[in-house]
Write a structure and sequence with these properties.
With about 190 residues, the chain is α/β, with parallel strands linked by helices. It has one domain: 3-Layer(aba) Sandwich (Rossmann fold), CATH 3.40.50. It is about 25% helix and about 35% strand. The strands form two sheets. A six-stranded mixed β-sheet has the order 4-3-2-5-6-7, with helices on both faces. The chain has a three-stranded antiparallel β-sheet with strand order 1-9-8. The radius of gyration is 17 Å and the shape is globular. It binds inosinic acid (IMP) and magnesium ion.
């Protein structure tokens, strides 16, 4: 059987962050989060599907009691954002009286996290809402949104792997890389 990673590797123009680099950075982020939220009632809200790998690896490094909830939203089609954030479930997590840390794969335009933070603040009653992203893209934000915890800053390139997709592909790569122009064209929405 041909290696799936080999097959996908040919569509990656360059590796930005190897698995070991990501894990070392998660050690640091988890330390910082554990220190900042010590003694607090913390709920981590992971935004699916992009933060699945990030969340799984980060949470196992945080050494304090916490709750985990997941939210599924969609706003992105192909390599450009639609700006409209759709909530894919009827109920929001119950975070009344708790500190919330939103987890997402990447901060790009800021539309997604802005919409989620807004909805949580107006419809639930959290003590605080902060934001943690694995990647922060160097682009002007469409929405006023600062990330409180950032794994890595990146240039304005379309990246995939370690949870991040292009047309639902490449999430299962263990590293983060830049997709080739050929692959962008090959899998472009019809
Ligand atoms: P924003 O709402 O524009 O900040 O976009 C956030 C969402 O868009 C992320 O949760 C990702 O799912 C997706 N996204 C933005 N940039 C990229 C990228 O470079 N690769 C893969 N997905 C991306
Ligand atoms: Mg996506």
């Amino acid at each position: 059987m041909p290696s799936a990673d080999g097959e996908m590797r040919s569509e990656i123009r360059g590796v930005l962050f190897r698995e070991s680099t990501i894990m070392s950075r998660l050690d640091e982020l988890a330390d910082q989060i554990s220190r900042d939220y010590a003694g607090c009632d913390l709920t981590i809200v992971a935004i699916l599907n992009g933060s699945l790998m990030f969340g799984a690896d980060l949470l196992r490094r945080i050494e304090m009691p916490l709750r985990l909830d997941c939210l599924s939203v969609s706003s992105y089609h192909g390599a450009s954002t639609t700006g409209v954030v759709k909530f894919n479930q009827a109920r929001l997590p119950d975070v009344h009286g708790r500190h919330v840390l939103l987890l997402d794969d990447i901060l790009d335009s800021g539309n997604t996290l802005h919409a989620i933070r807004d909805k949580l603040l107006t419809e639930t009653n959290p003590l605080s809402v902060k934001v943690c992203v694995l990647l922060r893209k160097d682009v002007p934000r469409a929405r006023e949104l600062e990330a409180d915890y950032v794994g890595f800053d990146i240039a304005n390139e379309f990246v995939v792997g370690y949870g991040l997709d292009y047309m639902e592909r490449f999430r299962n790569l263990p590293y983060i890389g830049v997709i080739s122009d050929e692959a962008i064209a090959k899998y472009a929405p019809q």
